[in-house]
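Annotated sample (chain length 471).
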Amino acid sequence: MFESTALKQGCAIFVAACLLSAASSAQQPNSSAEAITSRDAAGTAYDPRALQDAFQSVIGRAAQSTVSIRARRAIAPPASLAGAAQPGVSREERLVRTSLVNGSGVVLDARGAILTNEHVIQGAGEITIINHAGDSFAARIVSADPRSDLAVLQCDGGEWQPPQWADSATLARGQWVIAIGNPFGLAGDGHASAAVGTISNLGRRLPGLGDADDRLYHDMIQVTCSIHPGNSGGPLYDLEGRLVGVVTAMHTRAPADEGIGFALPLSPAKRRVIESLMAGQSIKYGYLGLSVRPNPSAAGLIVEAVEPKGPADVAGVQVGDLVQSLNGESCGDLGRFAEQVGACRAGEMAEMAVLREGRQACCRIRVDQRQLLRVACFQGEAVLWRGARLSEFTPRTRIGLARDSACCGVVVTDVACGSSAEKSGLAAGDVIIKLGDASIACLEDFERLTRRNSAGVQLGLRDRRAVEVAP
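Output written by the structure step:
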């Protein structure tokens, strides 16, 4: 989209150029009207201001493809507050609270398709897009995928300019990049903020981040650009103004810490996901019902847990097996293995080669479709079901419950406003103890009883209420 000889020659010695030009200016106070030149180690002369001009040109062009996002999210209050009478406040007003989430996005096509992170618009009832001119547009969700943390929005009206895309295979450590977005919501006037940095590393894994929503962050681009809340979903550009990735996360240990920024790369696999989302399709992933860990002594992955009666268990996979390949492709990287499993289609047979007690074995596994509730039950985590976030009893989830509360059932920790769960009357703090006539003691019971149920479900609560939750 934009190429500059000054960028190619000057970026490698940018810091030295600034120092040399500063020294030159100190010695020649009247040289501002003259060309400022410096020389690199090879003696080649260049103008550091040309590098600055090139950065400004790229940012100016790229900003036209960048948008700010405001997502208004409704939140249901805890059950103890939802029913409390307040003078002059209706029950509907007591039931609804809203929060404003600031994010960023990048234009996908001239018709107004916008790419952003799924976590930016998750649960949003109202989404506003602000373009580079400061004009606001209402947007709707075309499709979203929590696992890849990508979403496509659609704006009607306006003029939109998509950027060119870079080849993800050409990215390298030390490469200059520019993050443009809406940090802290400051770009509400359309003037997106720009942060310049370099690629620190490629293929970074972020284990633990987004686990509650079953997100997969395994091939992230680590950058030195200054990343803040509100940058999520925004574009990461190279020095030719081409789209490199989607800014997604910041790793920090303290509020005052600047942290480290991460972006999703636009790999071929990610591009296929984006194309499907643009077509309004939902993304489906394969599921084998096992968890693995790296093998420090040899190639392959060690099976550390198998879901009882799950696909892998039925096929004969055992804890301690060394997974060597899946469908003919070798296994050694956790992130790549997750991609391999996800690429399998439900109902198909997957062939897994394992090494068990020194002997080779081949397990034929019938693939299931990955479901958040099922995965979370297998991993022992909180889950999202029909708009309600459910969790096992823990000291944290028992806060606010009676001291004599029996430690059985499933705790509702949050409810998305407008969801089937909220419409049924479920609220944060409720404890589910029955599904129909069957008792619920834990998440595993709940998952087992709802796994194949796509119809309305009657839930019995600890306070003796019964609610009907629609699909």
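Annotation: Residues 286-369 form a domain with the Pdz3 Domain fold (CATH 2.30.42.10).
Annotation: The first strand starts at residue 38 and ends at 39.
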